[in-house]
Amino acid sequence: MRGMIGEITAALGANGLILRGGFLFPHHDGAPHGVSGAPAKSVLLVGQASAAPWPHFLRWREEQPQAIANPLDNWSRQVIGAVAEKFGARAVSPSDKPYLPFQQWAVRAEGLKPSPLGILMHPQYGLWHAYRGALLFEEEIALPEPCEAIHLCDACVEKPCLKSCPIDAYSTEGFAYQPCLAHVRGANGGPCRTGGCLDRNACPYGTSYRYPAEVQAFHMAAFAGL
After folding, report:
1. What is the reported pTM?
2. In the chain, what are the domain boundaries?
3. How far is residue 153's CA from residue 199's CA, in Å, rounded to a whole number?
């Protein structure tokens, strides 16, 4: 099994993706189906740290029609789907409908907790990581249970992530989606559109993994529908 995990890791790494932990579904109750339609027994999460997949995505994007919708989701599905096919798994995506509980899976797989922005805080990557998909297996894959990760937000007294947005989109009350969207689309939202969320960028952790401005601008444009 370790050999297969190593091969999956290498296959994903060829496109800048990494394994983000996994677990066994308890008694397989409510587990999504695997490749044959039977309930899955194991899940391996796939994601990224920093913007490592970006150059691979850009090369793929150059070969696609300009009007393709949701290109990053499509690229992720294609890459992860090829790995799934090779190893007899079913690939699923966070944007698949009906939605699967990816955030809950991530919490269980890596022992992380949400930051005040809702993004899971990673003890090494900070807020600069993402989950791009998962591999569902109809066999049990033995993985160690994750230890609860140090939650860096607990040690952060100043909470700059709640003080940098010009419209206070994030607060202890949650995320003000519509005001944020209107601001990013509006005349004063240029810094957010070109450099990314000011609150996210204010976080002092994992800064060496921060996405470059062009990557953040891509995600903000997708968020704003621009």
Report:
1. 0.93
2. 2-151, 156-224
3. 14
